[in-house]
Amino acid sequence: MYDLYAGYRLLGAYDVAQTARLVARYHYVEAQLMRVAAGKLAELPEWELKCLLGRHLWQDSLHADAWLARLIDLRWPRRAPLSPGEPTRRLLALLDDAPDGAAYLAAVYGQVKPRLIAAYTAHRAACAPLADEPTWELLGRAAADEEEQVRQGLALLESLPAAARAAARPFEASVAAACAALGNLNDPASAAEREADGSFDGQAVRPAPTVAARDARFRLGERAADRPPADERELALVMAHRDADNEMHAAELLGRSLYEHPDMPWEYHVAMARQLWDEVRHAVLYQRYLEQLGGKLGDFPVIPGNYAYRIGLDFPHRLYDLHLRGEKLGMPDLIRYREQARAQGDAHYALLNDFVHADEVPHVKNGRWLHWLLKDDEEAFRRVERETMQLRAAYERAHADDPIVQAYTGLVASLLSQADD
Known about the structure:
By secondary structure, the protein is mainly alpha-helical. It has helices at about 15-40, 45-75, 85-95, 100-125, 135-160, 160-165, 170-180, 230-260, 265-290, 305-310, 315-345, 345-365, 370-375, 380-400, 405, 410-420.
């Protein structure tokens, strides 16, 4: 009779305590890779790099979350990370200093992630696959994801200009030296045991760019079009172009909200990573629809305001403006565009808006973190709500002739009515 476990050995190289120390280190590495990528999203200009980081940091958040959950199984009493040790902290802090996209790609996908894969692979080969099967399974899944990420990251690096790749080598060398100083990530003797203050223990916060970076294809403007659209087709092109850029702005803002607040609960960071990935996918969806219509990125100006306006808000007002103002009040427009597209026989645009609307439901629910931040103080919540609406209404009035603002009529009406109350 077939025996699933016939080939599984009983012995392994690591006991429970050693495994817990390694799992804690894996959590910290994956969590900080997620956080650094989120912080870099607004800073690095390459559109394709932003798209790659959005997907990969979401995957890293899942790995980090799974490792934290596994730590509890290994006799650690609660969902609290262990200190990764000073060499690990120094290495991951160094990634935050990557000067450009080529340097970031070379460091992360040429140095750090290959070493993480090597640690996962060696650990999986040495552990007890039956007694420690949960860890064995997680190691295999995480390694497979990371291997795919490295292939994709290096492919993007190779597509960059040769001069940019050459300029990245000194930074990559400094990261390689930090990796060498750390040694093997799967050595339990080098993993610290004390409980850390959080999943990002010891990491600094870099200041946010005031305007989200864009590559040479894009040009900044005060309106989404150089002139009023001539017809419905041109309006559709303008809308798709603006929506692609706006969705990326939302992802970049979420990246900063994740990156700038390491003291927020771990569950907050996982939720923001998922929403960030959703917003990146939405940006690509509108980009592909734009291309299907015959347009391309850069055909129209991009407005920095969706990111630039919100990054100037403090954390509570930013949370409200994105999750409980923008996402919530924009949902009726998505339904309206879906139904219009169905009536016009545009199956692509109908399906796009249908799935974007479905994604927005949990995005609105992420507004719960404002309630958490305010300790469920309803009076404080109403004050933040009122102030956010007043600020946003003034911004919308100043851009009332923008064709995109005009198109989102339900949003503007709600803003003005609530702000004037």
